[in-house]
Each structure stands twice: as structure tokens, then as C-alpha cells.
Amino acid sequence: MQIEFNSSETTSLGVEMELELVNAGSRELHSAASEILHELGLGHPGGEHPKAKHELLESTVEIITGVCATVAEARADLAGTLAELRAETERRNLEIICSGTHPFSRWEDQQISPDPRYHALVEEKQWLARRLQIFGIHVHVGVRSAEKAIAIANALSSYIPHFLGLSASSPFWMGRDTGLASARSKIFEGLPTAGLPYQLSGWAEFETFMTTLISAKAISSIREVWWDIRPHPTFGTVELRICDGLPTLREVAAVAAMSHCLVEWMNGAHDRDGDLPVHRSWIVRDNKWRAARYGVEAEIIVNDEGRLVPLRDAIADLVTQLTPVADRLGCSSELAYALVMAERPSYVRQREAAAAGGSLVAVVDSLVQELHTDEPWEPAAAGAMRSSG
Q1: Three-class SS string for 263-313?
Q2: HSE (CB half, 13 Å, CA atoms) of 271?
Q3: What are the tens digits of pLDDT across the range 15-69?
Q4: Most CB atoms closer than 10 Å: which of 238, 293, 298, 313?
């Protein structure tokens, strides 16, 4: 089977953000996506909003950008759709949060979206799909050729811990502290076609692999391959699907900037050198686990001899390396914010909020506040949140 890759002439950018709808009183997830998306779709062709979509659960709305040239443009695009969505949620006494998991709502209480594709997924995958009460950020970056998309996707696997450690925001799962920084990443790996990508030799092997999966009825379309990093033939992009949901647009912009700059840097390196360095698969697997468990406190493996480097230091080195690229792409400030994120990621703030507020409801309060203010929650705000709630 031949798969056409719709090449992008530039390293264009697109961002997808999965948002949770929560009841303003109980702070539980609330199923209202179909009703809200119907209202948002009025006046648009086909009755569908072009930038707000269903996801698996009725308590989720995904907002997406158009094809953007810069991180600032992508952030503004998301902010515009978020404002439209908030107008619908506020009159329904709902709030919006973005995190890898909801701290205490239970997956068995959630309604599945009406799209037949999702019902087919649940019928096929059963418990593995039903428990996907998880939320992420996906970043698409345009690539000029199919072969380059494979080479870049392979090389990006070495940076999975950087993205996962920075974005980790799912320490809690159904009312319990999991002990992980990112429970979402481990929950998602339960699906047979999710998780770490395979290292492929080129586009021909990708085509062969997809043909085999479809012929064997393992998948019905390429859309059902949910790797952490994957080529997206329709959009002509490499898609980074590693990140947990991020509570502020500022943080979303930071990981979008890192994605944009890294792919742009790899694009140039591939043109100059032909090959891009790739870690062995066992190193990639172990490093992902370390970031899921310890977040930015992890030490990651950087060579075949097992040398370890603190992930915070690796992130700082990457920001330094990519800063000249960020200057060219106009996202220097967004990339630099990754250093701020690395000091106190969401999983740390959520545990602080739970300790300060005495319950996981306080964690949701903090996430609501963060998306409203676009600022990380501070412990001093706990009393103000309780009094205003």
C-alpha cells in the first residue's frame, strides 16, 4: 500500500489541546461536550466548529489550531477558541481544566462520545479503551518529505523524557496519588498501538508496516496508531503526542516552541549530515519510564555505557542548543519558559495544592485557577481559593 505524504514546504505548526469539563460545584468531570459542541457549531458549515472537536469522552473537548507559522500565532489561535468554549461552559456552571488526568473522577462514570468511531474503539479494546480518562497536548510540525519525517521521528524519540518530564501533570488517578509524575503515559501504553514508536528504516518500511497492520485487522486506518511520536501523512507533519495536558497556555506554548525548534534544527542537520543520532530502543524505553516516574527529578541515560545526566540539566542544555533556532523562529521567550517549567512542573504543583487544601478538590481548584490566570498556582493562593469557592 502506498501512503502519500503531503509534504510541508516549511516547518509549520499546529497544536491540539484536550480540555476537561468539570462541574463548578463538585469539581467532578461533567458530560456536556455534545451539547456544547452543537452550540459552538451553529453558523459553521456542516454545523461543526472547525477548531473544537469531540474526543473519546463526553467530558472532553479538544481544541485545535489551524496551520500556524509561529508559536505566538498558535497560542493566540488556541486562546480564541478557548474563549468561545468558556462562554458556553460558564452559562452551564462548568469550569475547564487541562491536566494529564483528573485527580479523582472515575473512568467508569464517564459517557462515551456519540461518534461511531469511539464506540467501535471501546467495543474492540474494551477495558483498555474505557479507562482512557486521560488528556494530552499534541504538537504537529511540518516536514518537507516522507523520508525526512521518518528520520526526524526516529531522532525525536531521544527527547521523549524532556517533553514528558516538563509536561507531567498526572500524579493522581481516581482519588489516589500514584507515586508517578505522569500516570497518563502509563495508562495510554495499555493500548496495543500506543506508546513508544518503532524505529523504522524509511518510508517504505512505514508503508509496509501500516499495510500489515491493516491487512491483519489490527487497525482499520493509520489514525489508530497512537505512538508518542508519529508521522502524519495527511498533514505532512511529525506529530509529538508525548505531553500530558498542560494547565496554562503559557506552558503549552513552551512545549510547542521546543517542538518547533527541535524539528527545525533536525531538518537542517539532516540536510547537512544525512543521518540523525538515535538512542538504542532500550535506552528510549528506560528514559521514558524514568520521566514518567520522577518527572524532571529523573536522571536519564545518555549513552550506551549508561552515563546518567539529571533531566533538568538535559533540558537546560537543550534550551541553550535551540536558542539560536528560536531566535530565527520568533519564539525565544516561549522556549526560555521551559526553564521556568522545569523548576516546578504541574505534578509538583498539584501535590502542593493537595497538601495545602487538604483534598483533591483543592487540586482541581488550582487547575481551574491556572487556566483562568495563565499563571502557575502558588501555595499562598490556597486560602484565597477556598474563600472564593
Answers
A1: HHHHHHHHHHHCCCCCCCHHHHHHHHHHHHHHHHHCEEECCCCCCEEEHHH
A2: 9
A3: 999 999 999 999 999 999 999 999 999 989 999 999 999 999 999 999 999 999 9
A4: 238
Tell me how far apart the alpha carbons of residues 4 and 143 are, in angstroms, rounded to a whole number. 13
Give the predicted TM-score (pTM) of the model. Answer: 0.96
**How far apart are alpha carbons 144 and 95 in whole angstroms?**
40
Residue pair 85/36 in contact by the 8 Å Cβ criterion: yes
Q: What is the pLDDT of residue 1?
A: 87
Question: Rounded distance, CA 57 to CA 352, Å?
Answer: 28
Measuring CA to CA, which residue among 64, 18, 57, 294 is closest to residue 166? 294
161's enclosing H/E stretch is helix 160-167
Phi, psi (degrees; rounded to nearest 5) at 232: -115, 95
Q: Which H helix or E strand runs over 23?
A: strand 13-23
Q: How many CA atoms are closer than 13 Å to the CA of 14, on its beta-carbon side?
A: 19
Residues 130-160 pLDDT 10s: 999 999 999 999 999 999 999 999 999 999 9
Query: What gap in Å lies between CA 169 and CA 151, rounded to an integer?
Result: 29
Grid cell for residue 238: 511529525
Strand 194-195 to 226-227 pairing: parallel
The rounded radius of gyration (Å) of the Cα atoms in the chain is 20
Domains of the chain and any CATH numbers: 13-388 (3.30.590.20)
Residues 6+ positions from 215 with CB-CB distance below 8 Å? none
Backbone angles phi, psi at 67, to 5 degrees: -75, 120
Say whether pLDDT at 387 is over 90: no
Helix (H) or strand (E) holding 67: none
Place of cell 513508544: 196
Q: What is the mean pLDDT of the chain?
A: 96
